[in-house]
Design goal:
Function: Catalyzes the 2-thiolation of uridine at the wobble position (U34) of tRNA, leading to the formation of s(2)U34.
Strand content: 25-35%
Number of helices: 7
CATH superfamily of the largest domain: HUPs
Organism: Crossiella cryophila
Family: Belongs to the MnmA/TRMU family.
CATH architecture of the largest domain: 3-Layer(aba) Sandwich
Structural class: alpha/beta
Number of strands: 17
Mean pLDDT: 91
Distance between the termini: 54 Å
Enzyme class: transferase
GO molecular function: ATP binding; tRNA binding; tRNA-uridine 2-sulfurtransferase activity
Length: 365
Amino acid sequence: MTMRVLAAMSGGVDSAVAAARAVEAGYDVTGVHLALSAKPGTLRTGSRGCCTIEDSHDARRAADVLGIPFYIWDFAERFTEDVIEDFVAEYAAGRTPNPCLRCNEKIKFAALLDKAIALGFDAVATGHYARLAQIDGRPELRRSADAGKDQSYVLASLTPEQLSHAMFPLGGSTKTAVRAEAETRGLSVANKPDSHDICFIPDGDTRKFLRNKLGAQPGELVDDETGEVLGGHEGVHGFTIGQRHGLGLERPAPDGRPRYVLSLEPVSGTVRVGSRERLQVTELVGDRMIWPSGVPLDGPVECVVQVRAHGGIAGAVAQLRGEQLVVSLREPLGGVAPGQGLVLYRQDAAAGDLVLGAATITRTR
């Protein structure tokens, strides 16, 4: 019996080519576009935003070229609850979330996959750049062949069960090759710009978005070393740890050097700032651990940790201590905030780095 695959089609080049490869592999493919905005815009603004009416039309045109059925599913309410409201709540609590990681976990591989399985599909295919294999009946999630486009970080929150029903047809390809293939296949999205920033904040102004959601919550900017008040602000949600620009300092620090956000205290409204040196951390503690291959850490493990979708990588030793994951860094990292995801990798030059596990950072040292 032919495997039935639901291809998630965003309207971009990656998901279109992923769907095309699934068709070419002989699967019974159906395309679906997720309507994630309750009030979608008509047109995109360059590389900003997604889920516009233009995107849904681009997805439909790609499905027509491939000759596959195509549907639009309304997930706007679920996206608002699980991604947008979570994003706002995390910032209000002084944490820095990654909405793409949450979207993959809650929408594309929970809500979408659940509905796909209920309708009789065997797998969901997406245009993510990551490699997936089944080894001894267990899924293994690895970095993509294109290091610059690798998206294994934002997929590391997926469970073994979810990965067993996932397909990433682009994992072994480069972005350049994917665009060339789209051109050859006659897909009109071949040269469409990639989406950047946060999809539900198309103008890129996160501070304004949060201010509109949370209102003004005045507080003070305090020098972490001296305790001196250096200025005021309208809410801790307007800052992220590691931020340097736009702090609104009323006067320079005594030593005249740049200041960075070191910590956020939502209850008191205090934003502590200090030197770049005081920003460095050597230990991460996380909870909500997920093991994509179904194998938790067994004792201290030498690995590589990544704390941002692009960058924030360091050698480390990771181990479980009760209900927490403790990661000791071989070299310090800066700009690491509670709420960010940490992903552990085992380096393997031959087969591509393997994702060992993921967690949500609760504190740093």
